[in-house]
Amino acid sequence: MTLPAFRFDNSYARALPGTYLAVRPAPAPAPRLVVLNGRLAEELGLLLDDAAMAAAVLSGKDVPEGAEPIAQAYAGHQFGGFSPQLGDGRAVLLGEVVDNAGRRRDIALKGSGRTPFSRGGDGKAALGPMLREYLVGEAMHALGIPTTRALAVVATGEDVLREVALPGAVLTRVAASHIRVGTFQFFAARGDAAQVKALADYTIARHYPECAGAENAYVALFDAVVAAQARLIAQWMGVGFIHGVMNTDNMALSGETIDYGPCAFMEGYAAGTVFSSIDHGGRYAYGNQPLILGWNLARLAEALLGLFDADGDKAVDIANARLEGIAARYRAEWLAVMRGKLGLAGAGEDHADLAEELIAAMEGQGADWTLTFRRLADAVEEDGAVLPLFADPAAMKAWLPRWRGRLEAGAAARMRAANPAVIPRNHQVEEALAAATVGDMGPFHALLAAVTEPFVEREGFMLPAPSGFGRYVTFCGT
Ligand code: AMP
Ligand code: MG
Q1: Whose CA is nearest to atom 3 of ligand 1?
Q2: Is the per-residue pLDDT at 377 higher than 80?
Q3: Ligand 1 pocket, 477 CB below 6 A?
Q4: Given this model, what pLDDT does residue 2 score?
Q5: What is the 19 CA–ligand 2 centroid distance (Å)?
Q6: Residues near 380 by Cβ (< 8 Å), separated by ≥ 6?
């Protein structure tokens, strides 16, 4: 079958033989388009008007001309333990297209069957989790946070076996690339210095071409990744996003959020908030994410050591100097995010005291993260609706006048543009996915519409879970 809309140009497959295996997606028995991201399709210059054709291609049943389906090799530290071989066990990279804005983007299928990296897994995915990635990823994009995108979810027409039989589906993921910290680790762990270098050269050319002219392009690459990731994690923290599984194979060199599994948005503020059923130690808790940023980047530095300097001791000195700077870099990004959220746009002061005192005032008070900042915009002149969000508002009451004293004209409007009214509320995500799983897409589309215009106040989408919802638990690899 030919689908002239795809103009594939597969630079990864071309430039990096030996880093992937050619695969064939499993043909879905009865592919049916469940949701298509029309605006993204347009951006990509894709014509997907024919639903049957779109379903066949975006399920992997028909491989369009020019696609070169591959499974990429990668390793990764999972919850701190190193797995030398992970790789795309249930994903296939169809190829790359250059979008209307000239950006090169990967088109990948997730849940399209077994690959040589599948180990014991079936390579498949269930409809609920794929719709979840679609919803949360598109919400993140609308919040202005770098992320992979969702082009479509196609039901395959077959069940996948989890604890129970669930309808199977394939997600089409669009990404700046799928190069992960774990991709470098895969080759570094095998002592394949040539492949690490080839991968670094490719990453520089694709994502950070300005590094090529630096004194040491690889050190510059590392610095660029630190900058992108520090900014990304600061943005996550700003909206209360908890990734849930920040393994090194889930950290992209591009600086995009990748792999929406057990992720969720924090409601009542608590630094220790964890949702993932397998994160017993709270390694990937909300407040730990900035520390894991540094930990993961240290693993990247290890993989790149041989490129930092031919002299091993010098390479370690270079890496250590870089790693020591990450905390300060992150803090600067976080303070910039917090200034934006607090309407303190003026340059000069960092207002770190105000940001930290607010966090301290929120801890343990059950104050909803999103609503607190949204209500603060209403509290520029008088206390209004913010105090009732706190179990004990005393500290907050003392903080408000100090904050007001630093505000400049226009703060409320700036804050309403920086602080979302709508995030994917956990209970509503679950309701939407449960309905979708039995064939009712109404709640999904209503929620999608709300979370993709997150700065618009929409009644019915702004409240935290009712107390009856209980403690929220999310699951991995589903
Ligand atoms: P993730 O938790 O999605 O980041 O995946 C971690 C690793 O497990 C990756 O190598 C995945 O390809 C693999 N994996 C997850 N689910 C499956 C599955 N159903 N079948 C095969 N491999 C899987
Ligand atoms: Mg992953």
Answers
A1: 477
A2: yes
A3: yes
A4: 43
A5: 17
A6: 343, 404, 407, 411, 412, 415
Ligand with smallest separation from the Cα of 91: 1
Determine if ligand 1 sits within 6 Å of the CB of residue 261: yes
Question: How large is the average pLDDT for residues 454-463?
Answer: 97
What are 400-455's pLDDT values in tens digits? 999 999 999 999 999 999 999 999 999 999 999 999 999 999 999 999 999 999 99
Catalytic pick among 62, 88, 249, 279: 249
Ligand 1 neighbour 476 (Cβ under 6 A):
yes
Ligand closest to 71 (CA) is 1
CA of 10 to the centre of ligand 2 (A): 22
The ligand 1 atom at the shortest distance from the C-alpha of residue 89 is 12
For the ranges 40-54, 134-148, 278-292, 418-432, the lowest mean pLDDT is seen at 40-54
- Report whether pLDDT(1) > 60: no
| pLDDT of res. 384 | 81
The answer to whether the CB of 96 is under 6 A from ligand 1 is no
106 is catalytic: no
Residues with CB under 5 A from ligand 2 (ion): 250, 259
Query: Separation of 464 CA from ligand 2 center, angstroms?
Result: 28
Please write down the HEC assignment for all residues of the chain.
CCCCCCCECCHHHHHCCCCEEECCCCCCCCCEEEEECHHHHHHCCCCCCCHHHHHHHHCCCCCCCCCCCEEECCCEEECCEEECCCCCCCEEEEEEEECCCCCEEEEEEECECCCCCCCCCCCECEHHHHHHHHHHHHHHHHCCCCECEEEEEEEEEEEEECCCEEEEEEEEEEECCCCEHHHHHHHHHCCCHHHHHHHHHHHHHHHCHHHHHCCCHHHHHHHHHHHHHHHHHHHHHHHCEECCCCCHHHCECCCCECCCCCCEECCECCCCCCCECCCCCCCCCHHHHHHHHHHHHHHHHHHHHHHHCCCHHHHHHHHHHHHHCHHHHHHHHHHHHHHHHCCCCCCCCCCHHHHHHHHHHHCCCCCEHHHHHHHHHHCCCCCCCCHHHCCCCHHHHHHHHHHHCCCCCCHHHHHHHHCCCCCCCHHHHHHHHHHHHCCCCHHHHHHHHHHCCCCCCCCCCCCCCCHHHCCCCECCCC
454 CB under 6 A from ligand 1? no
Supply the residue whose CA is at minimum distance from atom 13 of ligand 1: 89
Tell me the CA–centroid distance for residue 250 and ligand 1, in Å.
Answer: 11
**Which ligand 1 atom sits closest to the C-alpha of 124?**
19
